[in-house]
Amino acid sequence: MVARSANVSRVAVSRAFNPHTSLKPEKRALILKVAEELNYTPDRAARALVSGRSHLVGVIVPDVCSPWESQEIDALTTALQNEGFATLLFKTRTDLSMDATLLTYMKGFNPDAVIAFVENVKPTILAGVLDRAVPIYVHYPRETEAGFDRPDADGPLYDRLNVLQYAGIEQAVALMQGYGAKRLAYLTGVYRSGASTAREDTLRKVMADRGLGEPIMVVGDFTYDTAYAATVDLFRVGDGADAVFAANDVGAFGVIDALRHELKLRVPEDVKVVGFDDIEQSHWKSYNLTTVKIDLDERVRALVRLILRRLSKPSAGALEETVQTRLVVRGTVG
Amino acid sequence: MVARSANVSRVAVSRAFNPHTSLKPEKRALILKVAEELNYTPDRAARALVSGRSHLVGVIVPDVCSPWESQEIDALTTALQNEGFATLLFKTRTDLSMDATLLTYMKGFNPDAVIAFVENVKPTILAGVLDRAVPIYVHYPRETEAGFDRPDADGPLYDRLNVLQYAGIEQAVALMQGYGAKRLAYLTGVYRSGASTAREDTLRKVMADRGLGEPIMVVGDFTYDTAYAATVDLFRVGDGADAVFAANDVGAFGVIDALRHELKLRVPEDVKVVGFDDIEQSHWKSYNLTTVKIDLDERVRALVRLILRRLSKPSAGALEETVQTRLVVRGTVG
DNA sequence: ACGGATAATGAAAACGTGTTCATTGTTTAA
DNA sequence: TTAAACAATGAACACGTTTTCATTATCCGT
Q: Do residue A171 and residue A73 come from a single domain?
């Protein structure tokens, strides 16, 4: 610690950097000035050792490239940075197998909180491995127009963000039906992923309520290429559809391109398409996608709020935040 | 440290986790087994404190959402993870002002190396603030078909990755000219960014050599919306062009959409378009973009190589790696 | 001017590791 | 069998902070 060579004791330096402590103002100013000159910054590793706070937030994703995830990481990083935290990024293996190896690996870095944007890791698993870090969970509850379920029964509770999808899906189906859609297909995301199955459940409920029967199931995995191929199959091998609801926007792009460039069908005249997420690319003129928007800033602010509240009150009961969805109308329905 | 309650001294535990040390195999096995049961992992913060290695690599980007950057971060994170490092992500402010604040902030986390994917921060600045971390620089040297310049004269040298663009640009121009392009426009990236100006310089050289005169300059900033608007301007206010070379793929998408949906021109029949990067989205059927590819895996491997070599030999001379570019032909030229 | 409260200060301990050094136990070479 | 080389081991220290705790300086009300 060079700063004290210039003036006085080390605790004074420590106090100079911690606002709430008591230190004579002029002394603090002097220390900060000298620190500035010497290009000194308190070492977070040492600080973490004694305080038990690393100011690191672990983020686990299967694929940073996916536009939705990259946009979420972007917003999250900005928000965390503003609160004095940093994003520690980890990637799961491509097969989505959330092996304990990655978690133990991550644990070594001692993050204060962990957010897993990966469908097959439950907070129970996270909590089991990371003893100190707080797991934050993104949850898609089953819901109706009346409200949503809180699955408090199945095991211990963890802090979670509830994403309410009923409103957006209801609006989307209404719009498609309004433009004459009768045979509605659902393009799924990754097999058994929470987001995809929740959307499917809600869609089934909404369709049944509106007398539209069951959706035609098309299995995808959130990627463009799979969506493209699955759509071609749906019309070449299967019986087609007059509207497709995709579990995410990138999938919707694959659907649109397959319809237009492979099957020579028109969107929205022949087939209507709706996506989910409202990513940056959705307003690009080639797609101009009508989609169910999850407000990213709102979602990320809620996540950060969860983390901060949990860290300031470690013993509080399970925390909860809720965000809504709504339809953004563009040009792929009518 | 709970592990030693189960058996013996703490140094034994330390050695059990460091393979190169000498410890009786059976003892090591026992310790690892007990550690496993107790869910114990060595604390990296404490380790960093004494060893001076945090195993953190700071990555600074202006915008994680940008497909090219998110793909680079993705590949980099995977590669670093395989080498026992973790990615620490930071975002510059939206105005790209690389204020010292962010650097000091980052310095507190003590990264072992820093890669700044942001055009206006030179390694000199990085090195000035981060005393311990190693700056890695992505450089786009001026080059001709004969080779490329090494600007060794201007100040001290830092480890760098040279991206050679001549080959790809030469192939792109040749292809466009082969299909009859005579009036070639260049859509720039962000003002004075290294990548964009290097591409412009090389393009000018190649065009001059082929008797194509000077490129028509169109100023962009690597984003879709700006590219779209600038292209409309070029044709409505300016005199148009019969080919556009964009500084990046996302910009090329904006050009294509403006041409097709706003100006009612055909690509490639009326106007040819070439991009730069070859991002995931470039093969999407709506664009099917012919573009100059930078091999991402190769590029990232080179970056990781630079970091590892530098950390294992801190006093070695400036390190250098080089990657090539090449044209990927799809459907936007002819 | 006095007693008591409060602010300011530094010494020492603690956080969980890696490293050096000296000691002990074990193998190898003659 | 003996000396020498080597493997295995633990005690003590160091890394750069924050946090008690005890001490001293300063302020306030009367």
A: no
* Chain-centre distance for alpha carbon B129: 22
Residue with nearest Cα to nucleotide D10 C1' = B9
In a domain, A333, yes or no: no
Same domain, A71 and A188: no
Containing structural domain, residue B28: 3-42
Pairing of the two strands A320-323 and A160-163: parallel
Q: Select the more confidently predicted residue: A83 or A318.
A: A83
**Within this chain, do residues B171 and B288 fall inside the same structural domain, yes or no?**
yes
Residue A158's CB: how many other CB atoms inside 10 A? 19
User: What is the chain B residue with the closest CA to A83?
Assistant: B105
In a domain, B334, yes or no: no
Question: Which nucleotides in chain C have some atom under 7 angstroms from a protein Cβ?
Answer: 7-12, 14-20
- B15 C-beta less than 7 Å away from strand C: yes
Q: Round to a whole number and report the distance in Å from the CA of A29 to the C1' of D26.
A: 20
Of B81, B44, B31, B54, the residue nearest B311 (C-alpha) = B54
Largest Cα separation within chain A, whole Å, is 82
| Protein residue with the closest CA to the C1' atom of nucleotide D18 | A50
Question: Would residue B252 count as lying in a domain?
Answer: yes
Q: Is the CB of B182 under 7 A from strand D?
A: no
pLDDT tens-place string over residues A17-66? 988 887 888 888 888 989 988 889 999 999 999 999 999 999 999 889 99
Tell me what pLDDT residue A24 has: 80
Alpha-carbon distance A178 to A199, whole Å? 20
Residue A193 and residue A302 share a domain: no
B27 shares a domain with B147: no
Tell me the C-alpha distance between B195 and B325, whole Å.
13
Instruction: List C-alpha distances in Å: B44 to A105, A323, B134, B229, B292.
Output: 10, 36, 19, 49, 41
Tell me: the pLDDT tens digits for B132-177?
888 888 888 887 776 776 655 454 578 889 999 999 999 999 999 9
Is the CB of A37 within 7 Å of strand D?
no
With CA of A9 and C1' of each nucleotide, the nearest comes out as C10
> How far in angstroms lies nucleotide D14's C1' from the CA of residue A117?
40
**Structure letter (DSSP) for residue B119:** T
